[in-house]
Every structure is written in structure tokens, then in C-alpha cells.
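Researcher: I'd like a candidate sequence for this fold, 315 residues long. If you have to choose between options at a position, lean toward the conservative one.
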């Protein structure tokens, strides 16, 4: 069943509307008439015999009717042995302009009748064939796939090991000193490198990515960068104190008066915050790019349709 605005003018036009064919059918001035809506055009078919010598007469009259319609409404006209066909631009004859279509049909039928053109019977083969109406495909609602299993546990363990290793590497090998080349490089690359290592470690053992992977990797990345940067600050202060005083302080001694030591080296405290913000920013970008790359190639691992309970088997 199809809907067409032709149904709105059936009574005024004196024709019957067929929802199955999206068309008007009936007689105008005794001429069997069909007006079909194919979605882009209104196809008018009037069953009348038009001899070759009178084709020009009919064509001229149709062109004169076109002048009272919106511009470019008449797309084409043709005739066969027992019918006349006129294709009209559908968009030009919608809503309030439907009255123009009624007037067009009435004037055309009156012209054919008054000029004594011969009426013919309906030829079904001459009627336009509409494409079959396809039912609207209901899109399945997508929802997150909760596929926590033993592979997820293995992935979490791998991510934890990677996070712990990255924390100690950052804490022991990054000097929070803007005068060193290492700091300048790591201040931009550290966050991205740490997050990518943790993500790869999760995937290496889990052989997939899921909600557990995203949550655990995000949490481990945050902790690894935060604690690693804190350790780097402690390590840097310890080195600076040893260089200035010749006395290396233990971790416990550093923590008991951390504020005081940062007061002696305020640049370290400022760079601590700068390094941490850079790490979080670059880490978030690297993670987003990784997820976009991964899930664009493994679309079935993150979402499933509402009615699709099929889970993809883990490799």
C-alpha cells in the first residue's frame, strides 16, 4: 500500500484512488483515465486514439496547458496506438498546486471530447509499472556488548603489568627539568607512549577489546601517569638536593617535607603540573585514535543489534 497526495483530490477530480497502485482511475468526459504517482512524477494516461496527422494538434494543446502550470511541469508527452501519455513533474503539483492538476485533466479531457477524438478501452500494458514497494527495514538498535570472560581477565592482568612497568620507567628515568632534552621530548611523548603500551598489553593477552578493556586501560593509564609523574618529581628533587648539598635523601625523608623541598625548587613544582597535563592530554588523544582505528576494523566487537544475540567467538 502506497500513500500519494493524489488521494486528496480523488473526489474533486471525479476519479477513484487505488492505494495499491498509488493512482487515480476512472473516466473524464467518457475517456478512460489513469493518473499514477511513481514517486517523482505524475504519469497521466488517457485512452484515446490519436492519428498521426492529429498528433501535432494534441501536442500544441498540451503545450498551451503547460503555460498555466509552474515552469517545467510537463516533462514529456507521447502517444501510442490507443493512448496518450503525459509525464508531469510531481514536486510542482503538490499541496495547494494539486488544484492545477485537476484543472489540467479537465481541460485536456474537454479538448479531446469536443474535437471528437475516438475513445478506447483500457490497455493495461500501456499503464506505467511501479517498482515494488519495499518494506522499511527496521534498523536494529545498537547496544554495548558485555563480553567479560577469562580473556578479559587476562587482558586486565596484562594492562596492569604494563601500567606498573611504565610507572617505574617514568618515575626513574624522567627528569622534571626543562633544561634537559629528555624532559622536552618526554613531556610531549610520555602520555601517548604509556597509554598505547597499556592498550597493546591488554589486547595482546585478551585478543580483543571490550568494555572491561576500555575501563581498565583508562584507569591504569591515569594511575600510571599520575604516580609515575609523582615519582619523577621525587627523583628529580632528590638529584637536585644531592647535587647542591652532597647529601642524598631517602624517600621517607623526601615525603616528610615535600612542600619544603618544592619551595626550594619551585620550577620543579611548576613543571610537575605542566608535565601531568601534557601526559593526560596526549594520552587521551592517543587512546581515542587507537580506539577509532581498532573498532573501525573490528565493528562487531563493541556493539550488537537489539535482536542479535550472536556473540563473536574469541580467537
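Model: Candidate sequence:
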Amino acid at each position: 500500500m502506497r500513500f500519494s497526495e493524489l488521494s486528496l483530490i480523488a473526489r474533486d477530480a471525479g476519479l477513484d484512488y487505488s492505494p495499491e497502485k498509488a493512482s487515480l482511475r476512472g473516466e473524464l468526459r467518457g475517456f478512460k483515465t489513469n493518473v499514477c504517482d511513481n514517486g517523482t512524477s505524475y504519469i497521466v494516461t488517457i485512452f484515446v486514439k490519436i492519428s498521426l496527422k492529429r498528433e501535432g494538434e494534441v501536442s500544441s494543446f498540451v503545450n498551451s496547458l503547460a503555460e498555466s502550470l509552474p515552469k517545467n511541469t510537463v516533462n514529456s508527452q507521447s502517444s501510442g496506438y490507443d493512448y496518450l501519455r503525459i509525464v508531469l513533474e510531481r514536486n510542482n503539483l503538490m499541496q495547494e498546486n494539486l488544484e492545477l492538476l485537476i484543472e489540467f485533466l479537465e481541460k485536456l479531457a474537454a479538448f479531446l471530447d469536443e474535437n471528437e477524438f475516438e475513445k478506447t478501452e483500457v490497455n493495461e500494458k500501456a499503464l506505467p509499472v511501479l517498482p515494488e514497494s519495499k518494506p522499511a527495514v527496521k534498523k536494529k538498535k545498537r547496544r554495548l556488548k558485555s563480553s567479560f570472560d577469562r580473556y578479559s581477565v587476562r587482558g586486565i592482568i596484562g594492562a596492569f603489568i604494563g601500567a606498573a612497568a611504565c610507572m617505574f620507567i617514568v618515575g626513574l628515568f624522567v627528569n622534571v627539568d626543562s633544561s634537559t632534552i629528555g624532559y622536552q621530548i618526554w613531556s610531549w611523548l610520555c602520555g601517548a607512549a604509556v597509554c598505547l603500551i597499556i592498550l597493546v598489553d591488554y589486547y595482546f593477552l585478551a585478543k580483543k577489546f571490550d568494555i572491561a578493556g576500555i575501563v581498565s586501560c583508562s584507569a591504569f593509564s591515569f594511575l600510571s601517569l599520575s604516580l609515575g609523574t609523582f615519582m619523577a618529581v621525587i627523583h628529580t628533587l632528590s638529584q637536585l638536593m644531592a647535587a647542591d648539598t652532597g647529601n642524598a635523601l631517602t624517600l621517607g625523608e623526601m615525603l616528610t617535607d615535600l612542600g619544603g623541598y618544592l619551595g626550594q625548587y619551585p620550577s620543579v613544582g611548576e613543571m610537575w603540573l605542566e608535565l601531568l597535563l601534557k601526559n593526560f592530554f596526549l594520552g587521551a588523544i592517543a587512546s581515542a585514535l587507537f580506539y577509532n582505528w581498532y573498532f573501525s576494523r573490528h565493528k562487531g566487537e563493541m556493539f550488537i543489534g537489539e535482536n542479535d544475540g550472536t556473540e563473536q567467538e574469541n580467537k
